[in-house]
Amino acid sequence: MSALTFSLKQELIQKLDVSPITPDKLSDKNIGEISATLLWYGKQQLRADNFFLISGLDTQNIVFDNCSAKVDYIGNGMKTGRIIVNGNAGAFLAFQLQKGEVTLNGNAADFAACAMAGGLLLVNGNVGDYLGGALVGDRKGMRGGTVIVKGNAGERTGDQMRRGLILIEGNVGSYCGSRMLAGTIGVLGDVDDYIGYGMKRGTLLLTKTPKLHATIQDCGTHTLPFLSLMFKSFRNLPSKFSKINQNRVQRFAGDVGNDGKGEILVLQ
User: Fold this and answer.
1) 123 and 256: one domain?
2) Based on the domain organization, do 128 and 241 belong to the same domain?
3) Within a domain: 220
4) How far apart are CA 199 and CA 144, in angstroms?
5) Cα dist. 186→21, 40, 119, 149, 166 in Å?
6) Which residues, 6+ apart, have CB-to-CB distance to 104 below 8 Å?
7) pLDDT in the model for residue 263
8) Residue 170 confidence (pLDDT)
9) Domain residues for 151?
10) How many domains does the chain have?
11) pTM for the complete prediction?
12) Is residue 229 domain-shared with residue 127, that is, in the same domain?
């Protein structure tokens, strides 16, 4: 059975909300009902077949072809199945993802994996600001699951993150791990200013020593056996992190202005 495929027919002028298009929401619908699914486009609701050529029958495997950065909320609240996006994605990719997998073969805008609770998000490109962060006004960011970014990430990655794993192979903007409460963020590239700002708990795993602000304290060089277990858990992930195998780190504690129980570990 071929994947249920949505091929974008035209260039979008306004933002398109595709939150109703997920495997669990379409599982009991036929092609006619799927085509008639109403999507918000700006201030109006229009049928899905106004925007997409729709083919295939397997609702547990959804593909967005020729996708655009104006397509928002891909994988919104998804509980099962798989979504593959060919092209770019808009804001709130994998928003509140609970289970299943979302793969993006392109770049994503802001708030990817926002309030994510489970599942896997794989981005074979770059992402914008607030990756794995919280909604504006909310106090809970990412609460579970795994995010892998092959490219770069913007500012405020993991803002108010409570649980889960974010692995970034490229560079990250300022305020990475800001107000972080728990979980792990790994970065292979460079990290900009104010890393761990307001961080309470959690782990930031780096390969390069960043510029640190005054309330991050140097705790010296350590051999941490638990890292061997962490890296073992990375072995089957589609990421360069799967090849790391060392437990000697330079450890920094902080933010000491906010209890100081978080840690920044720089691999030696």
Assistant:
1) yes
2) yes
3) yes
4) 18
5) 31, 36, 18, 10, 6
6) 74, 85, 89, 93, 121, 122, 123, 124, 125
7) 96
8) 98
9) 110-268
10) 2
11) 0.96
12) yes
